[in-house]
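User: Fold this; tokens only.

Assistant: Input:
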Amino acid sequence: MARIVPTTKNILVIAGDPSGDLHASNLITALKKKDPGFSISSLGGVRMQEVSSHFIYNLANVGAMGFAAPIRHFVLWVKLIGLVRRYLEERRPACVIAVDFYGFNHQILGLAHHRKIPAFYYISPQVWASRPGRAKRIAKLVKEIFLIFPFEKEIYEKAGAKCEFVGHPLIDLVPPPTAGPAENKKGAWRIGILPGSRLQEITKHLTVFVEAFYKIKSVYPDSRAYLFAVPEFSDETLKSMLAGINPQSAGEIEIVRELDYKIRSTMDFSFASSGTATLENALMGVPMVVAYKMPALTYQVAKRLIKIPYISLVNILLKNAVVKELVQKKAVPDRLAQEAFAVLNNPARVEKEKQTLTSVRGMLGSPGVAARVAERILNYLKQ
């Protein structure tokens, strides 16, 4: 790590997955806009690298997820924790901001707490889904937790945390659905493919989603599929993966890279892995089926730890199985295609599902999320 001239006008931001990378990058932009005098150092992904003053390591590319990941990445974890420890001691940042990614971030928060460096948590771990004891550990290590779901506030307050529901950052990014009646496409369906943002997710889901699309195409030949890509994977990598599934798919399935959701908002139906993608689809009113496959060991552990009945954020928020969820052995092309046909062949169901999905927007707060969080942090640092 290159030595940096010490200054108190420095903030360290850490995120470890593509979704956290996106929201952390917007927070960094908001911090620099409100006070250009601050230098922002970060560990994260390519989005954070673009906006940070100093980028330490691409943590998002490690792709650590699941219960076995910390074991596989143990040596790297030790190296990175040592790297951050030296950074905290040499640079003495004004504060540390952790963004999701509990497994790594709670250790960094412990280092900061020990050195009396104030810390904040933005996009807190989903303790409402599993391992609620994490809430108390976090509460002891941070000055404030910025929550993105309204129901989290009661949980963290009971754990003794100072916390505030600030709204979900997707409110500022995802456009509302286009008003007006559904277009009569006569079977020329536009199908979105969202297999995940990590390599192991894409590997598990892409084959299933592509094969499900071709089952739709066998009935509706004019249908088209769009694979929505994340920056971590090149077109060449994705085309190679598509060609390995179906030689035709590399040429027939369009790879889309966009920041404005312009193309994605036009999808008639999407195959989505559980995660942020389901909430994005809901905000745009895009009907979907949610699937998730994981290593057998991870699944067995998860079944024992997870305390909620749904895996998709939209169903969790609505407290109802609005979208179909297919997990593990149920996540097969036939089942996904059947669910797509059940929706697409029923215009009344499409309109009802769109209305229900978009009702989620009213639960997620008001625009200006990153700016509000930046303001609260900077106000604390000015005290």
